[in-house]
Amino acid sequence: MLKQVTGVSEAVMDRWRGRVALVTGASVGIGAAISSELVRNGMIVMGCARDVEKIQKLAAECQTAGHSGVLVPFKCDLSNEEEILSMFSAIKAQHRGVDVCINNAGLAHPESLLNGKTDGWKNMLNVNVLALSICTREAYQSMRERNVDDGHIININSMSGHRVIQSAFTHFYSATKYSVTALTEGLRQELREANTHIRATCISPGLVETEFALRLHGYNAEKAATAYSKYEPLKAIDIANAVTYVLSAPPHVQIGDIQMRPVEQAV
Asked: What is the pTM (predicted TM-score) of this model?
């Protein structure tokens, strides 16, 4: 079970009790931590991923822990728009719609700009940019249909969306995360022009200890471990705490972007 260490009191999150949040990429790492924390705070969380069995296990753990909310697993391949639209239709039928959308799902392939494979580039674009945009659009439409004027869309970005490091394997990935930075600010502007109080926020972590490095290095455990050996990385729960901080902000406060790094991370 994920360890719960939160700096936001449950009372501050009271207005979200019983309301519906969608968390993409909810099966492991940051997505699992966010889902668990929102369930602990009484929300109905739609957790989606391709590996739905891990979300089912997390849902059972949340129930055993006595969390006041509930985690509902959804199997969804975010690279397939039809599956995303089907998921939103199911959420509408079962829970009327979403009040909070947390676009957490993201991936990186070690494909450089000079020698990278087109399929790897397309996969990163499909999940990191297009799926995020589709989920954002559908979540907004869901909120507007139900006259929800205090909803929130949170994009889990990366420090790679704010600077480019000297690592050829991450350059295309960084380009997709720069897109998330631009999309979040564009979303904020469009929401304001639409005269709604729905808010948009970007959370940009540096190095976080999850399965991300393991996947990036082709499941080479030794290389992945090296990534976390130089200094203490952030933990998934740190990002989850940032999410609850954002959701607990007063209605007049727009938190645009939270950039967070391990203390010893240089860039």
From this structure: 0.93
Amino acid found at 185: E
Q: Which is nearest to 79 in space by CA: 46, 119, 113, 117?
A: 119
Number of H helices, E strands in the chain: 9, 7
Cα angle 24, 30, 31 (rounded to 5 degrees) comes to: 25
173 given a catalytic annotation = yes
CA pair distance 143, 195, nearest whole angstrom: 13
Catalytic residue among 173, 178, 228, 231: 173
What angle, 0 to 180 degrees and rounded to 10, lies between the N-to-C axes of helices 171-193 and 132-145?
A: 20
Percentage of the residues of the chain whose pLDDT score is greater than 70: 94
Contacts of 246 (CB under 8 A, 6+ apart): 152, 154, 201, 203, 255, 258
pLDDT 10s digits, 33-91: 999 999 999 999 999 999 999 999 999 999 999 999 999 999 999 999 999 999 999 99
